[in-house]
Amino acid sequence: MSISETQSKVTASHLQRDAYLYVRQSTMRQVIENSESAVRQYDLRGRAVALGWPRERVIVIDVDQGLSGATAADREGFQRLVADVSLKKAGIVLGLECSRLARNNSDWHRLLELCALTDTLICDEDGLYDPSTINDRLLLGLKGAMSEAELHILRSRLRGGTLSKARRGELRTSLPAGLVYDPLGKVTLDPDTAVQGAIRHLFECFERTGSARAVVKEFTARKLTFPQRIRTGPRKGEAVWAALHHDRVLMVLHNPRYAGAFAFGRRQSQYLAGKMTVRQLPRDQWTALIPDAHPGYISFAQFEANQALLLANAQARGCERRAGPPREGPALLQGLVICARCGQRMTVRYHHPGGHTVPEYLCQNEAINTATSRRCQTIPGAGIDRALATLLLDTLTPVALEVALTVAQELEQRADEADKLRQTHVERARYQAELARRRYLSVDPDNRLVANTLEADWNAKLRALADAQDDYERARTNGNGRLSDEQRAKVMALASDFPRLWNDPATPQRERKRMVRLLVEDVTLARDQQITAHVRLKGGQTHALTLPLPSPVWQTRQTHPDTFKLIDQLLDDHTDAQTAELLNQAGRTTGTGQPFTALSVLRLRQDHRLPSHRQRLRARGLLTPAEMAQRLGVHTSTIKNWHAAGLLTGHKANEQNEQLYEPPAPDDPRLVKHAGSRLKNRESHPSTPGGAV
Ligand SMILES: [Zn+2]
């Protein structure tokens, strides 16, 4: 392309407008490592100047630096460029390689179209193009297509041979730990029994618990390690033993080779928008899946069952409103309860009064969100679980279920129709927005008044489109709770067998929880004067249950008032143990119907702040041995001797056999006989320590 030809493309109309230099690198790493390319990009500014634009009218758009360019939607800089081009602000767009100006081909074609419409030039290192002329337009289009095709051809050539081998199941791929190639190249189980044992234990543990997390917990609790094959480096192929982590468990469970199946192409690495990404493919897009190709640790059927379970667990985590997997613990509705006050899922907590486990449902969302201890509501769970079980047993006859499921299906069909209607609404909005855009683009930009009105109109139409799309999405996500054929079959099978399974004492609580999950969509709980539970079953039926609030623990366990009065009287003259004994003789029992013990009497009087027998004796003026000894001026052992000899009146104060003594009358002849002079002596000199007799 000659200089004159190049320059003839630049007209006065172009030069009146600004030059746009679009600088982009797709990743932060490129920004750091590839500054040379950035220098080249900025050099294009010199080119714009050479073509006749004043340096200060070259606008650099480089906000995309460090952002990846998968689509134009999240690239502010590219959008600004498109907007300015469509507003006819740009006379020329400069970029390093114009085909890479917009990485994704549809973005590229849109920009080309706009440049053609607005008579904007395009310039890269190879040359200057006028997209409104057919030749340049074709050339540019081709450049964009080529950059995509180039990558594709390169990739497919490399993969062609590999793929056909993989389709025959003959490709030798690296095997996961636990599987090895024998000398003939056939896949067999690793002869190391420790490796085999660890893998078998993982599968068995998952089958037992139904959760990958539980597998990790068990391995950790029992300090078990798991084999792992080194993939690269000098020790490549060797097995090392390391702690088992959650992602490793998932990898093992998802790998069909453990089920003896040859699989290839489960993941796809793509060079998307200048970046290598790896994504998991759905199974129907795998290159090859050949069951029973070699020995495995589980059957293919078991593998399929595991996948279904993992999917269900993952869905539970994916969305707040969906049910969680059944965990340990007896609360039937764990993961299914929704708080009626705030609409969030409630969690379970267990209490263990007297050895029983009692669940309690609580809403902590407010506390978590606000980082305070404010709890939205707390609802005792035992009554709810019982009521729900009764409800399920009463209502879930096969006939009732069949009807419910049929109704649900009809509702789904109606929802589909509504969905189509809403979709046409979105289409209409999109068409009108497009119409407004074209009207706006076709107006002479110098005709300001008309252009402004049309621009406002275009904006309004775009907003209407966004609203319509939002409505559509919202309506779609609200239409959840649909049943797949498979779920439907499961529910029906369960219905005929349900009461027997439920009441069988051998059925583990976890299985009951699974059954509840199959049958119940969710339960919304509210508490005020009573507990209200709105149960939504899978078929779409709803039931409202009302339950009385259970009386608080202290009330149900209160000791009968008469018994309590008796205890108060007995403590005047008896220790805790003696009181308990007398109560039992009188046929009284505790609030929970148990016989009294010294400990239960102790707790009762502590809870109700009743004075103990000892405190009562002290209040009556009885003295401790030390006080008595001091009073009489003798050693404490003398007091004990006198008590044993019957000279002093003592009372047993507690279970430790402590004695308290009636104070001596000042004229007690027995005391005067033994200690008369000293007693007088001590009274006149109270500070003198008393000596032994
Ligand atoms: Zn709440």
Q: What Rg do the Cα atoms give?
A: 43 Å
Low-confidence stretches: 27-33, 66-74, 318-322, 675-693
Tally of individual helices: 25
- Helix content bin: 40-55%
What fraction of residues sit in β-strands?
5-15%
Report the oligomer.
single chain
**Biggest sheet: strands side by side, in what order?**
2-1-3-4-5
Notes on the structure:
There is one protein chain. With 693 residues, this protein is an alpha+beta fold. Helix content is 51%, strand content 14%. The strands form 8 sheets. The protein has a 5-stranded mixed β-sheet, sandwiched between helices. A hairpin with a 2-residue loop joins strand 18 (520-527) and strand 19 (530-537). Helix 14 (398-442) runs antiparallel to helix 16. The longest helix is centred in the middle third of the chain and has 45 residues, at 398-442. The radius of gyration is 43 Å and the shape is elongated. Bound molecules: zinc ion.
